[in-house]
Amino acid sequence: MREVLPELLRWWQAGETVGVGTVVGTWRSAPRPAGAAMLVGPEGEAVGSVSGGCVEGAVYELAQEVLSSGEPVLQRYGVSDDDAFAVGLTCGGILDVFVEKVSPETFPELGDVAADIAAGRPVAVATVVEHVDPAWLGRRIVIHPEEADAEGEAGADAGSAPYSGMTLGSDRADAAVVDDARGMLDHGTTGLLTYGPDGERRGEGMRVFVSSFAPKPRMLVFGAIDFAAAVARVGSFLSYHVTVCDARPVFATATRFPAADEVIVRWPHEYLREEVDAGRVDPRTVICVLTHDPKFDVPVLEIALRLPEVAYIGAMGSRRTHENRLERLREAGLTDAELERMSSPIGLDLGARTPEETAVSIAAEIIMDRWGGRGERLAGLSGPIHHHHGHADEPPLLPHQLSAT
C-alpha cells in the first residue's frame, strides 16, 4: 500500500472514489507480498500491482464491479491445469486479494494515516476481509502503539480504537484485534489474523488484515571505510534507514557516505549502547561491523551479541581476523551461543572482490536470514521459490469453498 499511497491520497483529497485491491494472503510462490496493492482510479486508471502481471486484468475488472456495487470482495487467485494461462498465477502461487472502494466517506481517517506514515510515526490499519456476517466486511480501525495512547496523542484508552467511532463490530473484537495488531506493529509485520465471529481467540469465522506502517528498519554500519559506502548504498536501496558510525572524524563525513541517512562521529560501542538504551534498536535492526580493527569492533560486538534480539549481526575480516576476534570476545566473557549469532566472515560466498560486490554479498546474507533462504542456486533446487516464515503451504478455505465441501 505504501507504494500507491501518494496517488490514492491525491484522489481521496479530491473527493474521488477509488477501487483498491490489496494482497492479504500469499501461499507457495506468489510473486508479491501481503500488502501489495493496485488502484483503479475514477477515470479507469490502473496504478500499482498485486501479482507482477499475472492477475492484474482480473483484479481490475473486479475493482470496477466493486466500485459499481459498493460491496467489498475477497477473491482467491491461483493456478490450475485448466486456467494456468487464463486467470491465474502461472508461477504456481496462490494469493487472496481483498477489493474495496475507498473514498472520504468510506475511509475518512486516510489523511491522518498518510500523515503518520509521512512523519515516520508507527500506525496500523486493521480491516475485516472475511466474516460470516457480510455486514462486517470492510470495517476497519486505525491503531497506534500503546505508548502513544498513554500520552494522549491518539485520544483513546489503551485497548480501544484510536479514532472515536471506529469499530469492527463489537467491543470484544476491537479489543482483541487492537492488542494483536499492536504486537505486529512493534515488529513491522503485515498479515492476517483469524478469530471467531465476535473476536474469540479460538475459532474461525473472521479474518482481519493488518497493514503495519512502521518506520524503516535500521541498518547500523560501523566503520567508515570504502566497503561501508557500498553497504550504505545497498542498504538504502533495500529501504533501510542507514547509519554509518566511526570514531574518526576525518573519515566519518556525509560527503564520503551520501547514501547514508546519518553519519555519526562516535566510538561505535558508545553509540550502540546509547541507541539500545533509547529503544532505537529492535528485532528488525541489522548491524554490520566493518572496521576489522579490534579496538573498534570487539567493544561494539560485545554489546551487539548480548542484545536479546536483532535481525542480523555481521563482522568483516579474514578468517585469521575472525579467529583473533573470537578469542578476544571469549576473553570478554561471551558464550559460544552468543558468538554463534555473529556472521563472520561477513556475507555469502559469491566470490566478491570489489566493495560493491561485497555489499551485494552482505545484503544477500541479510535477505537470506530474513526469509529463511538457503543461499543456493534456484536452478538446482525444487519446491517454492519464495519463503514465508510461519505460513502454511496451503491457504485456508474461503467461505464459499467451505459450503461446497
TrEMBL record:
Signal peptide segment: none
Residue ranges constituting the XdhC Rossmann domain according to the UniProt record: 219-366
Domain XdhC- CoxI, chain residue ranges per copy: 11-78, 117-196
Annotated region (Disordered), positions in chain: 382-405
UniProt-recorded name of the protein: XshC-Cox1 family protein
Species: Intrasporangium chromatireducens Q5-1
